[in-house]
Design brief:
Oligomer: single chain
Order of helices and strands: HEHEHEEEHHHHEHEH
Shape: globular
Helix content: 40-55%
Distance between the termini: 20 Å
Largest sheet: 5 strands, mixed
CATH class of the largest domain: Alpha Beta
Strand order of the largest sheet: 5-4-3-6-7
CATH superfamily of the largest domain: ATPase, nucleotide binding domain
Number of helices: 9
CATH architecture of the largest domain: 2-Layer Sandwich
Number of strands: 7
Radius of gyration: 21 Å
Number of domains: 2
Length: 289
């Protein structure tokens, strides 16, 4: 992004959550994205004034400090800001009161009140939260199927579909895979549940109803914290769980309207990457002042 706010180039790279791929892996992905973008935009490193990296896993102060140190060493004499991916999504709403619900592999909500106060809920990862996420819904489905098997029951239609989707012969094989790569297994179950729910499967629909309730509770908690219960504000849904299924979208919207009766459903004004560019641009403006 240039000094006028015009996007000069865009690029993609690999995962950059330091809690999942390590700080070295996160740094490599961010630097690769930066290098590819500069090549596309025909911009040299010398022309860069500021960098903003919005990363999942950077919420903890120690993680933020370490990533900022690494990026400062990689890009010396540049202004560097490290924030979370949630900060970027909130920035991408524009101005005014807003709440963004992130529903994907993980779950979280971030918001800004009428007075400018900002807060977040969720986003603590699968061990401490992520209620209603694709990981959570998939895990609940697998646990229910395995408990039924423990009681000597035959696999339900939904359970059999899960095994086929994951290309495993039985639940013992699935269990082994979960202990190796749980992050890959449970989110892949979510689309199976969605398809079954669309066809009327009662178990799948109950799983999605519980997931929608948990996601709406995140928004409800933010509405209370930011004192938005009686205020008009923008509510944005984003993430891999959103916009793909009529049944889940319907029950999620119903729950969200109950939690936030004055919310106006809308979309992000810009991409999170553009929001990072805007935050970097503000760093240069403050520096000039």
């Amino acid at each position: 992004m240039d000094e006028t706010g015009k996007v000069r180039a865009k690029a993609r790279s690999g995962p950059s959550n330091p809690m999942r791929v390590g700080f070295g892996g996160a740094l490599a992905s961010v630097c690769e994205a930066a290098q590819l973008t500069m090549q596309k935009g025909k911009v040299s490193v010398a022309e860069i004034s500021a960098i903003c990296a919005g990363l999942a896993g950077a919420a903890q102060p120690e993680s933020e400090r370490k990533m900022k140190q690494l990026l400062t060493e990689e890009f010396p004499e540049k202004l560097v800001r490290v924030c979370t991916d949630l900060d970027l999504t909130l920035e991408a709403t524009g101005s005014g009161p807003a709440i963004v619900l992130i529903a994907g592999t993980g779950s979280a909500a971030v918001g800004r009140g009428s007075d400018g106060q900002m807060a977040r809920v969720g986003g603590h990862g699968p061990l401490l939260g992520d209620e209603g996420s694709a990981y959570d819904v998939g895990q609940r489905a697998a646990i229910a199927a395995m408990r039924a098997r423990d009681r000597g029951k035959a696999d339900s239609t939904l359970a059999a579909r899960i095994l086929r989707e994951l290309r495993v012969a039985n639940w013992e094989e699935l269990e082994l895979r979960v202990y190796r790569v749980a992050d890959e297994v449970f989110p892949r179950i979510f689309p199976v549940i969605v398809a079954a729910a669309e066809e009327g499967d009662r178990t799948a629909r109950k799983l999605l109803q519980d997931g929608a309730r948990a996601l709406a509770e995140l928004v409800g908690d933010l509405v209370e914290r930011l004192k938005l219960k009686s205020h008009r504000f923008l509510l944005v849904k984003t993430g891999g769980m959103v916009g793909h299924t009529k049944y889940f979208e319907g029950i999620l919207d119903e729950r969200l309207r109950a939690a936030a009766p004055h919310a106006r459903f809308g979309k992000l004004a810009m991409s999170p990457a553009e929001a990072a560019g805007s935050m970097a641009l503000r760093l240069t403006i403050r520096e000039e002042i």
